[in-house]
Amino acid sequence: MNEIKNLQKAANRIKEAIKKKENIVIFADNDMDGSCSAIILKECINNLGGRIGRIYFPDRETEGYGLNPIALEKLKSQAPGLLVTLDCGIGNFTEITVARELGFSTIIIDHHIVLDKVPKADIVVDPNQKGDRYPFKKLANVGLAYKLSFLLMGEKMTESLKRDFVGLAAMATIADMVERSGDNEEIIIEGLAVLEESWRPGIQALLAIESVKALSSTNKVNKMNSLLSIRMIDENNISVPYKLLTIANIEDAGRMVEDLLVKNQEKKRKIKEVVSEVDRNVSGKRDPVILEGSSSWEMILLGISGSLLVEKHNKPVFLYKKGSEFSQGSVRSPKVYDIVVAMKHCAKHLEVYGGHPQAGGFKLKTENIEKFRECLIDYFDNL
Known about the structure:
The chain has 383 residues and is of the alpha/beta class. It has 2 domains: 7-228, inorganic pyrophosphatase (n-terminal core); 285-381, Diaminopimelate Epimerase, Chain A, domain 1 (Roll). The protein contains 16 helices and 10 strands. The longest helix has 33 residues, at 250-282. It is globular and about 60 Å long.
């Protein structure tokens, strides 16, 4: 059977770094997919006696998506070493080059759509890249991390560790809203079957929420993931999902969950405000696409707001946080469109873009917003 291109190479390089006591830096997206990928890789490295110098999740509000100059400035003291990106990196052409110039060996482990080329990392793992013959292309990034864990652990992969990892993988696969078929379906079925037995205090605290207890397995995970989708980053650049799911005792986990429940109500209120504002702005317009932004919107609200607007308007939705020089945003789309292809068509107006067919992100110069709008309207009008 064909294997995922370069996954064994990535495992071998990580094991080499562990053996040589190299400094390892894990850089991951701050959502559930990136956070659970980071947990699985971190715990494999720890179990094998490796040295992790830093785990880093970028702040979407100040750093945007993926590897970025702010992060590299903070991480340069960790070089020389091995830098592994999870759930990001496939569009970071310049940043990967800079990381290598700083003295890092680089491994990209990503699942997003590959653009015309891949960055010049030492090793690139992405089922969508040219020459990858693995038959299933729809894995969440945590699916790649889960498969990598077997190559790393080998005979040291215990049944207990496997059950723990597949539970995390199921939660993150559901959260990332990838196609529920093939490998993803296998991970979800296997993970849901063992999740309630998890030893993790964070998972037990989430399962103890009264509104979660009576739900079906999938709906329990959806509710838990919703709480964990508050993409806050602490002063050490650690994400909320990572912090809760690695917390050491049930009392601390319970307090954190209570805090998340309060914050979730505030998040719902802000999302409702964004959706209402967009509805007012597009009322009466017949454009085939929605492109709206505001300097007051929070990046963490745009993905969920976009999904709600897609359900309501049944057209692609591009929402952005407007900045003085650059603006960045999230995209959601009905299943009949591929927004990565749409953004590729309008790439001359963008600085960075990428994602899945129905969900992605972008960054552009604020002065190019109207040109981008015209290009998108032209593209969708002529499909």
